[in-house]
Amino acid sequence: MYQERVTLCAASAYEKKYYLNEDFKGLPQQIRDELQIMCVLFTEDVGGILRLVFDEDGTLLLEVEADEGDLLYDDIGSELKIRQIKKEKSELLRDLELYYKVFFLGENLE
Fold first, then answer.
1. What is the DSSP string of 84-96?
2. Distance in angstroms (rounded) separating the CA atoms of residues 68 and 41
3. How far apart are CA 16 and CA 10, in angstroms?
């Protein structure tokens, strides 16, 4: 049983890398690909680091951070892009929360 925040995936504009938590390798390939594309495009567009993290209750959070001296990071663009992702990918994000709650937190579907 998970008691703390769990990272699903992350992408970094600084290291030009994408990370998917090994605990989620059971997700269908199409979902894993969609997550990678979403995260990488975000960091290529606005910079910084994007993390998708589940909190203790199973809520999926989109967290963004940027280095203090990063003059190319677009803070306003970041907020707008997060809103766009939440709107356009709402079904995916909801399904990921459900997946996490059932398979990791052991909750029932009812």
1. HHHHHTHHHHHHH
2. 21
3. 11
pLDDT in tens, 40-90: 999 999 999 999 999 999 999 999 999 998 888 989 999 999 999 999 999
Angle at 34 between CA 4 and CA 61, to 5 degrees: 30
Structure tokens at 82: 């997060």
21: which DSSP letter? -
Q: Alpha-carbon distance 100 to 54, whole Å?
A: 8
Three-state SS string over 46-88 comes to: HCCEEEEEECCCCCEEEEEECCCCCCCCCHHHHHHHHHHHHHH
The pTM of this model reads 0.92
Question: Distance (Å, rounded) from C-alpha 11 to C-alpha 14?
Answer: 9
How far, rounded to the nearest angstrom, does the alpha carbon of residue 29 sit from its chain's CA centroid?
Answer: 16
Q: What is d(CA 9, CA 24) in angstroms, rounded to the nearest whole number? A: 9
- What are 76's two structure tokens? 């306003």
